[in-house]
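Sample intake sheet
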Amino acid sequence: MIKFTTLFTAILLGFVISTSVLADNPDVGQMAPDFEITQMDGTQFKLSDYKGKKSVYLVFWNTWCTFCMKKIPKLKAAQLNLADDIQIIAVNTTNKDSVEESIEFQKRFEITYPLAFDHGKTVTDLYNVWGTPTEFIIDINGVIQHRDGVPDKLEDNLSEWNSILKSFTQVFEDFYYSSAGFFSVVTSKKC
């Protein structure tokens, strides 16, 4: 009986640990965790600055990642043609990379979209990134629409990603003010 109890406890503990780790895993439908990072050009990028303005394409990468290199033409095209509708930020996870290697990578591939180097892996860990490339589309409301599996044709989805959703309070206020005339008529009548 003691062996069964020990085994059961170990399984239960494993389940609790795995679900708590998964609970911290930003995923589709959840609010994207806010972060601020210094870009390679020295300017600051803060995710929440784009809330209500435009969607964000967040991609985690490394200089040695061949799949990351295959994403470069798509990202360059998006930066060239869709910069008014979607903000790109490519974050180097710092796994086996240096700032110098990242700068050389940027020059070699003539990268035109914003790059950042995640000193201390703060943003990488915040987004629970284990491999590269890992991509996120974060809509104008700050909600994650894609974690990987980003559509090839971004332009086909921009109208959806850039639609501002009203909060419950906004919906209630709209209803209340549009119905105010009706309620004043109903309450002014004497029964």
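Comment: The CA atoms of residues 23 and 52 lie 26 Å apart. The helical segments are 2-23, 66-82, 99-108, 122-126, 158-161, 168-188.
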